[in-house]
Amino acid sequence: MRFHLVDAFTDRAFTGNPAGVVVLDEPADAGWMQQVAAEMKHSETAFVVNRGDVKSLRWFTPTKEVALCGHATVAVTHVLGGRQVYDTLSGHLTCTKTGDWIEMDFPADPPLETGEDLNHIIPGARFTGRARENLFVVLESADAVRKAQPDLDALRETWTGRLVITAPGDDFVSRFFGPGVGVDEDPVTGSAHCCLAPYWAEKLGKTALTGAQLSERGGTVRVEVRGDRVLLRGQAVTVVSGELHV
């Protein structure tokens, strides 16, 4: 079976977010997929069954299966090309590759304000809330996001062990931490933009925005809010292609 390593949400190799892509002819055992993802050690490895009009797609971190992953979906669509419809744990997702850009249609996940005190994890919150699976914190500035050092041990013990931090930027900036799913910091997180996009669309009064994720590798996600959906747009670069022999 074919295996690819793709850098997503970037137009340059060795930046953006690397994802494994395994192209299957038949559905595979979940335990085997988890072993492959653990071997690959990327924040997510995607497994797609390449048959039919609606293709089965699953995502695994090195330690568990997740319900939604943006950058690995960009990577899969970059490999397969064209218009694809995926059957996932988050329902049917439609993605299209046009030229150098991949567009994904994902469910919006606006954060609900909770006001909870997260100073033991990250100080300086201007807003605290929760999205479907993520704690959500707004900081004062892009510089505060860039320099933030959340307590990952304390975060790991929370609700899902996942945190989005954000602040205003050209439109907005962010970082994502997920020790609860085996990813201390994710370089570029498409699924996090399902909550970032509606939050900043309301704050900035516009529906089309650009988000910069300020990880060490860095990356860019273009977003557009359409009702209860978010369109995510990004580029990708294939770094490795080969055969998986297990």
Structural class: alpha+beta
Bulk shape: globular
Mean pLDDT: 97
Order of helices and strands: EEHEEEHEEEEEEHHEEEHEEEE
Number of strands: 18
Q: What fraction of residues sit in β-strands?
A: 35-45%
What is the C-alpha radius of gyration, as a whole number of Å? 17 Å
Q: For the terminal residues, how far apart are their CA atoms?
A: 9 Å
What is the share of helical residues? Answer: 10-25%
* Main sheet characteristics: 18 strands, mixed
Low-confidence spans: none
Q: List the total number of helices.
A: 5
Which helices and strands occur, and which strands form pairs?
Elements: E1 2-8, E2 17-24, H1 30-40, E3 45-49, E4 54-60, E5 65-66, H2 70-80, E6 83-88, E7 91-98, E8 101-107, E9 112-113, E10 127-130, E11 135-138, H3 142-147, H4 152-156, E12 163-168, E13 172-178, E14 183-186, H5 193-204, E15 208-213, E16 219-226, E17 229-234, E18 236-243
Parallel strand pairs: 2-3, 4-6, 11-12, 13-15
Antiparallel strand pairs: 1-2, 1-18, 3-4, 4-5, 6-7, 7-8, 8-17, 9-10, 10-11, 12-13, 13-14, 15-16, 16-17
Q: What does this 3D model show about the protein?
A:
With 246 residues, this protein is an alpha+beta fold. Helix content is 18%, strand content 43%. The chain is built from five helices and 18 strands. It has helices spanning 30-40, 70-80, 142-147, 152-156, 193-204; strands spanning 2-8, 17-24, 45-49, 54-60, 65-66, 83-88, 91-98, 101-107, 112-113, 127-130, 135-138, 163-168, 172-178, 183-186, 208-213, 219-226, 229-234, 236-243. The protein has an 18-stranded mixed β-sheet that branches. Strand 16 (219-226) and strand 17 form a beta hairpin. The radius of gyration is 17 Å and the shape is globular.
